[in-house]
Amino acid sequence: MLDTLNHTKKKAVVLIFGLASILYTILSVSQLFGETSFYSPIEHLLFILYGLSSYFSCAWITRTIIYDDRQLNLSAIIQVIFISGIINAVVTTGIFLLTRLTLFIYLDKSGWYPSTAGIVTNIGYTFFIIHLIIAALYLSYLSLQVSHRSAIRQLAAEKENANAQFKLLQQQITPHFLFNSLNVLASLIPIDAKLAEQYVTKFSNLYRFVLNHKDEELISLADELQFITQYCEVMNIRFENAYKLVIEQAQESISETMIAPGAIQTCVENAIKHNIASTREPLTISVTFGNDMVHIENPLRQKLNAPASTKTGLENLVKRYQSLSDSPVTILKTSELFRVSIPALILTKNSGQ
Predict the structure, then answer these.
(1) Which part of the chain has CATH 3.30.565.10?
(2) For 244-271, how does the pLDDT look when each residue is reduced to its tens digit (9 = 90+)?
(3) Would strands 293-299 and 283-290 be described as parallel, antiparallel, or unpaired?
(4) What is the CATH number assigned to the segment(s) 173-346?
């Protein structure tokens, strides 16, 4: 990102020197072969006024058309150059006529009488020489600022994503969860050694998955579904089949669909934490697919004595997807159900995502 920014700065410097060289060449040729004397103090003053007019008209039109960094494109740049150029041509022509009429009337300088050719030449000179160069310099500087702001935003998003991933890992591998799981294992060993062995196997698979994918931004949806299936199996051993996980058959190939690691597990864990469930009345957690989204839904059966929710898990999930997708994570809560919809990212051959 910093390399890209430095490259943009170098291009801007080259452009400035290039345009300055062109301007100097044009003025020199005009001085040698034209009728205008650029050594005249009045011509220098007019040149400064033309430049200021070009700058302010360009800046004003830019703020009107390019009101957001995303609006800076070739079409907007062309509009800015031509609209501000027309305004600048009108203003500078007025200055041109006022100056020459004043000199002609009050100072009796017959050589300053404005002619049609002089007016046309002035319009062409101010637009195609002064305005185009100043507009190019101004828009180059604006483009550099946009690139700089974009680089800062991307670095901030990457930092936010890294922090969210770290918090997610802390949330998944908590001492409290580990302590409870070991207590369940200790209680199972004297009662059902075979079930205890299954519990250890599934439990180790969960932690192996978390550790293997902790540094990855995206994993396949198939891997995530396998992970939450094992997670629910561990929870059912611990809570005596109090939860029922229903995964809809996906219409498209889930092997090409990507998702943030632990995204669905965060939603399932949130449902388990805040809803009443028992062996007689298990809590059904559904995973469905539609409109390039993965929907995790459960009936709302909130615990009366549940601890106050910090919403850390879902907030981290929302922040992670702000840097992964243009589509946000959406949360719907009604009197009957709770649903979290997560964008499913489809792999493509060209972009990889």
Answers:
(1) 173-346
(2) 999 987 666 676 789 988 899 889 988 9
(3) antiparallel
(4) 3.30.565.10
